[in-house]
Amino acid sequence: MSKDDKASAAAAQLLIDDEPDDWDKRIFSTGCADENTKLTDCYYEKKDWRACKQEMETFRQCWQRHGNDKRTDSKNV
Questions:
Q1: For the chain, does the N or the C end have fewer beta carbons within 10 angstroms?
Q2: Which phi and psi (to 5°) does residue 23 adopt?
Q3: What is the DSSP string of 16-70?
């Protein structure tokens, strides 16, 4: 495979990766994609959910505000 072929393959893969997959579509449909991103970024950086309490609360409030708890039969415990 030539250098140009490798570059073309990498560019094609990048285009494919930019398409929203099923998980992305489900997260975007909740209306809380930004909050979810902040929460997962926090966990990625700190590796401890306890250190992400504010991000979790912000996500939880967004989830409830958009009615996702009723749509998914979530229980608030």
A1: C
A2: -60, -45
A3: HHHS--HHHHHHHHHT-HHHHHHHHHHHHHHS-GGGGHHHHHHHHHHHHHTTHHH
Tokens of 69: 């708890």
pTM: 0.67
- Coil/strand/helix, residue 5: helix
Domain map (residue ranges) of the chain:
21-77
Band of pLDDT at residue 71, cut at 50, 70 and 90: confident
Q: What's the pLDDT tens digit per position in 38-58? A: 999 999 999 999 999 999 999
